Amino acid sequence: MKLTDNQVDTLKELFNVGVGRAAASLNEMLESKVTLAVPSMKTFQFKDITEELSKYGDKTCFAVSQSFSGAFPGSVLLLMPIESAVKLVAYLTNEEIGSFELDSVKSSTLAEIGNIVINGIMGTLANMLKLQFEYSIPDYAEDTAFELLKREGFSYEAGILMVNTHFNVSERLVEGDFAYLMEMGSFDSLMNAIDLVNKGLE
Question: Which pTM value belongs to this model?
Answer without folding.
Answer: 0.86
